[in-house]
Amino acid sequence: MLGNIALALTLTASVTGMVLYALAARGRTELTIVARRSTQLAILGMLVACGTLLYYIFNYHFEINYVYEHASRKLSKFLLFSVFYASQEGSFMLWGLWTSLIAAFLIGYARRQRYEAHVMAIFLSVLVFISIMLLAKSPFETIYAAHPGEAIKGFIPADGKGLNPSLENLWIVIHPPMLFLGFSLLAVPFAFALAGLIKRDYQGWVVTSMPWTLGAAMVLGFGVMLGGFWAYETLGWGGFWAWDPVENASLLPWLVTVAAAHSMLTQKRTGGLIRTNIALTLLAYALVLYGSFLTRSGVLGDASVHSFADPGFLAFNLLVTALGLFIIVPFGMFLWRWREMSGFAQDYKILSRETGLSIASALLGASALVVFIGTSAPLLKKKVEMGFYNNLHIPLIIVLLVVNGLSLLLKWRQSNWSEVWKKSIIALVGTAVLTICIVFLGVHDPRFIGVCAAAFFALFVNLEIGWKILSGHWRVSFDRSSPTSHDYMRRLSTALGITLILGLIGLLAGTAGDYNLFGPSIAQFWPYFAILFALLITVFVLAGYPKFIFDTKFLGAYVAHAGLAIFVIGVIAANGYTKHEIVRLPINKPVPAMGGKYTLTFRGIESAPNEHTYWIINVADKNGYAGTARPLSFMTDFNQHQAPILNPGIVKYASRDLYFTLMSSEYEGGVPRDTLGKLQEANVLGGKLKIKFINFDFPQSEKMKMMSQKPFHVKATVVATTEVKPAGDTLILGVTRNPVTDEAKEDDMLVPNTSFHVQLGQLMPDMQNPANSKVVIRYFDDQHLPPAPTEVITVETFVKPFINLVWGGILTLVLGFGFSVVRRRKEALVAIDRAERAYEKLLTSGHAKSIPDAGAMENTRNQPLLIKKKYENRA
């Protein structure tokens, strides 16, 4: 099949490229061109394989086992795309796709650094591993090969099984791609660090790989956040991080990568921490593979709901082998060079920024160690509770935030206490004021007070320094010149940006942050903002427009650190002070909740396609209507309709979320009923009527209807005894039930000479032992009708204060990483340009023969090192 041929091509070409690049690194530079072409062929093979799988998915090729197991004609095109990476094989395909695309860009980047042969040989080893895994557990296996003896050759199922209902969500389209992009990006600094070890270039690799390290931290951090948000919006337990081992598997490499980013900054400035940086960079990617092993090997099957099933003997052993090789080989080389690197060790003064950054890296490493121990505990058949992680991280985060604030107040090399004290006065005063405020507001737990105080201190320090930097690097001017052909787009984007910002502010203010009202508000007011946009663009073209100039080059670290502080404050507020209550809501009856602060009213249900049911709950506070929650329940073939899948309903505000999860629904009142076993009787209606279950009739024809999911009819014989007729009347009761909708239509039987009605509500036959069969009997007196049945739902209710600080803090953290990536990328390009000019000057000098590998360099002298026109203007 085309898919397997493409995977085989990827494996063959990547192995060839890896070997040729390795030979080129040892001096056979003439092989570089061939290695490059082999790499491009491997990339093409992976792209073809991915395209083939997507074609099979979108065209419902259910003869392919992977498509049959995860796709369905009921899925939207939007969700069909996520089938591509919905399981083990698909996730490796996604990993391979990102790795291939990165390889395409990395070739040129590494070549300009004179690192191409070493880096690409290492990077291609990752693609080799992924290709082997995909061939061992192929997504292109047919149902005939996957189920020998069960699927008849030539038979193609009419439909597939579909996705797990918990995956049928917007976030599956964003979260996994972000995670795997982060994993793939981490292979780049891994390759540069190992290449630096091999080449004995212990300093140069840091500048080159820093943009990739920060980029990986940004993307992976965003992916981890999306996972938490997905859990919060979908699972219904009221939280966003449960310290699940599979969740931790993506957090571990992020923590180590952030630690590496801080220590790399120290090395770039001082030349120290060489061994630390190489070890952390190698460890970050080793943890990616360790997390892949935990997630995909089946060892966490009983410890995590997110774990994949056992992949089989071959795939399991390949995972173990790959994990071992990616640990033993890099760290073996690291230990081999250990003594050689010791000559670069430096002593740092205690009051210096490099010491602060080193301590921060150590604390992040300690956090990773805690997570590693808890995540690995299931391998030893040990269970770790959430308290293990929370209790150990509280002191770590306090120290980390304090060190973060202090390190930014320190100078490189050495500072003094008096200078630090003067710089920290504003932050300390602000911290004291806010800490006193939260104590008066009800935060009395000493641990939470300590965490918040540390977060306030870090936040004030970063905001103060960030503002000082920004105040000197931004301005607004009004350009009154006539627009040129190149200027219209800038004026258009400025008008659009102002309109969108004002619209967002108006939307948040008008809805109080309740996203349930976003749609109606946008539908009502968008014409006014369209008019505003038209007016702005007219003014900007005719009279001029404002030019906003921001230089964010130096803001990255301060924005990211401020985001971390905001995130920590949000976690303390949302998790430490969540209010929780279970409330029963009869339909259309207001019920006070949360100590009377809110009034909840269940208004009924709304049906939606695919058996989706929304339970409408109006929420009112002391000022009146506050919002509408819409918890969701739906049945699915995925679990054979055994139990409904539940999603929460959330009413969002700027300062809190009201979070509702449906627990149960039932009817109170209505026609009374009793369950009777065979030959069992019951006295009902105050002793006026006695009912005895005698027998049932469930003919084979009706059984076949039930098996075919068609409405079927059953009967039961009962004896009804009254004062009028003590001997009793024999009644044949019947009920017609629809097995698809579970709707029932009961035959109503009137007991002769009385006003008593008897109905068969349900038959529960025991075909193996009919004597154990049961029936549900309904009865009532038409002279004294029972009250109408009232629908009642039970909901679990949470108030999550300041939960938006969690999401806002992480987004700010990611934004800070983005600013840093831009800055470090520019620095790397400048370093590349300088190195290129120095290298060309060296080749034209008479000293080229005296340096190692001079012959190899002369062999490549005529090869273009970079596109000159692109960088000559920047020099």
- Helices, by number, come to 24
Specify the biggest β-sheet.
Answer: 6 strands, antiparallel
**Average pLDDT metric:** 84
| Low-confidence runs | 848-875
Instruction: Count all strands and give the number.
Output: 21
Strand content: 15-25%
Q: Between the first and last Cα atoms, what is the distance in angstroms?
A: 51 Å
By oligomeric state, this entry counts as: single chain
Structural class per helix/strand content? alpha+beta
Shape: globular
In percent, how helical is the residue content? 40-55%
| CA-atom Rg in angstroms | 34 Å
Structure description:
This protein has 24 helices and 21 strands. With 875 residues, it is α+β, with helices and mostly antiparallel strands. Among the domains are: 474-550, no CATH class; 576-665 and 795-800, no CATH class; 673-786, no CATH class. The strands form five sheets. Strands 4, 5, 6, 7, 8 and 9 form a six-stranded antiparallel beta sheet that branches. A five-stranded antiparallel beta sheet has the order 13-14-15-16-17. A four-stranded antiparallel beta sheet has the order 3-21-11-10. Strand 16 and strand 17 form a beta hairpin. Helix 8 packs antiparallel against helix 9 (204-234) and helix 16 (417-440) packs across helix 17.
